[in-house]
Every structure is written in structure tokens, then in C-alpha cells.
Amino acid sequence: MFKNLALYRFTEPFTLTSVELETKLKDLHFRPCGSHDGFSIGWTPPVGKEELIHACNGFMMLCLKREEKVIPASVVNEMLQEKITVIEESEARKLTRKERTAVKDELIFELLPRAFTHSKKTHAYIDPKGGWIIIDAASATKADDLLSHLRKCLGSLAVTPINTKDKPVITMTRWLVNIASVPTDLMVNYDCELRALEDSISIVRCKNHDLNLPEITNHLDTGKQVTKLAVTWQDRMAFIIDENLMIKRLKFLDLVQDQIMDIEAETEVERFDADFSIMSLEIANFLPRLIEVFGGEQ
């Protein structure tokens, strides 16, 4: 189940089938780091050990894996200083900055084969009918990384971040100023971030805090606006909306969890298929409403 939703719209219909998409992704299939590689990145099966695309109910799940060699900076710095000292004493001179950099690069090259590896996966799925690609990423940088690699495989990828007529900051601020303006199917929770938009340093973060208290109103009266807000939708999903309409800290609540638990699954693939099916349908129902409460798409 995704924890974040980075939402991108296809500006042209996505017409590839899951089989066609699988074929295109194989050119950038994930391969573990070689002995002297600092990192490796590529597509890996979302579940199981074979297919790069997991298709269900018209949705297509894919997964980008990044593996990096981990060399602690403290180890590098200690060994580097030892090497530099030996060279400087043997040559009776101080190394230049360029020479120090060259020694460091050589040292890292020597350490790479012995380094530990650390890997991360970024999942995403394509909704061709709805015209979405949805990425489980908490930052635009991480989402863009996946889109960049998908673009390499497809040659082009006509997508754009979600954009609504009403700015999320203005709408969410209005909700806190006048709680009666919150749509009836949404409930404002107890976390928010307030910021003076002309002063990025002045930030107020509230966690498990009553947002109806006068101190919150005072911040709003002085010009601060809501840049993050915790919300529940129809008692089915709880999440935080940020100023760019990225959904973070997503949780599927009991009504959805009960559906998941009611499905019997004997294998990992069957469990994944059930979770993906329910999650994607929930999100497909939610996204049109998300766009609607922010004034429709721009």
C-alpha cells in the first residue's frame, strides 16, 4: 500500500499494453552494482521474480530499484589523511587541492569492491483510463527520477504534475479560517504547517494540535498560510496535503483495511494483487474528488 502519492497527468493518452510496456522496460532492467560501480539503477519486478509489470484491473504497477555502495565518510576521511600524510612526508611538500582530490578519488575506487550496498525501491502505477501515473514518492526529486528512467525506455513521456484552478495553499487556509467551509466528506485533523510565503524561514508546525485554538487563528491573522494539512476523506483515507498537491503519510483506514482482510490470499503474489486492486480502486475514486475540492483542473 502506497504511503505517498505524487500525481502526474498524461497530456496524451497512454496506449501501451502491459506486455508492450514490459518489453520496453527490459532494456533498463536492474543489475546489481559491479565491483567498482558507485550505484546501479533499473527496473525490477514489483512482486515475485519475473514480470517487470504487474497488471490488475487495467492498472499497471512498475518498480524502480536503486542500489548504492555505502562507504562511511569517517572511514574515507581517516584513510585519506593517512595517505596524504605519507605522500607529503615522502615528497617533502604539501599537496595541492587538485592532488588531494585525485588521491581521494583513487581511495574511493579502491574501497568500492569492499563496500556494503544499500538499495531502495520506488513503486508507481499507471492508470491509462483515468490518465494518471501515480508514484509512491515523498519528494518531487524522487518522482522525477522514476519519470526520467521511464522516459528513457519509452522515448517520450507526456506527463505534467497535477495542477488545479484553486491554489491548495489558499483553499487549505480558508478551511482553517472558516471550518464550516470544509467539504462535508473531508475532516481536518490535528497536523498542519503554516508559513509566511514571503518569508520561508518563518514556519509553524503543529502535530496533534487543536487547530481551532486562538493561537492558530493569530498566526493566520498575521499572514501565515497553510502549506500542509492533515485530512481524512470519507473515513476511508487519512493523509497530508501539501502546497503542491502531493499526498503524504497516506493511511487506508478501517473501512478499507476490512476489505483487504476479507480477501484470502495464499501466496505473496495473491496478497500483492489484492492490495493493489483495492488500493488502486480507492485512489481512482478519490482523485476526481480531490481535483473538485480545489476548483477543477487547470
Helix content: 25-40%
Biggest beta sheet attributes = 7 strands, antiparallel
What is the terminal-to-terminal distance? 29 Å
Q: Compute the gyration radius: what is it?
A: 24 Å
User: What structural class do helix, strand and pairing data support?
Assistant: alpha+beta
What percent strand? 25-35%
Name the helix and strand elements from N-terminus to C-terminus, one letter apiece: EHEEEHHEEHEHEEHEEEHH
Number of domains: 3
Shape: globular
- Determine the mean pLDDT: 90
Uncertain runs: none
Number of E strands: 12
Helical stretch count?
A: 8
What are the salient characteristics of this protein?
298 residues, alpha+beta, 3 domains, seven-stranded antiparallel β-sheet, 37% helix
